[in-house]
Amino acid sequence: MGRNTRKRRTPLATKAIAASAALALGGGGLIWANFYASAHESSNQTWGGNQTKASTAQVATISCPDVGQKLTNVPNRARQGVATELANLDKQITEAYNRLASTRNAQARDASFVQNAIVGPLKEKRAATIDRIRITIQRSGGSFDNALKQLASCTTRTANQTNAGGEQNGGQQQNGGQQQGDQQGQNGQQGNIGGQAGNGPVAADFVDITKVAPNVQGKPRRTGNASTGTFTSRCGVNANKNFNTDNVIVAPGVTNGAHHLHDYVGNQKINAFSSNNTFLQGGTSCQNRNDLSSYYWPVVRIQDGTQEFDQNRDGGGKEGNVGRILTPVQAQIKYVGSPASKVVPMPQFLRIITGDAKTTTNGLANANAHWSCTGFENKVQLTEQYPICPQGSKVVRSFAFQSCWDGQNIDSANHRTHVAFADPASGVCPNGFKAIPQLTMRLVYDIDPPTIENGQVKNAYAVDGFPEQLHKAATDHDDFINVTKNGLANKIANCINRGQNCA
Question: Do the beta carbons of residue 251 and residue 84 sit within 8 Å?
Answer without folding.
Answer: yes
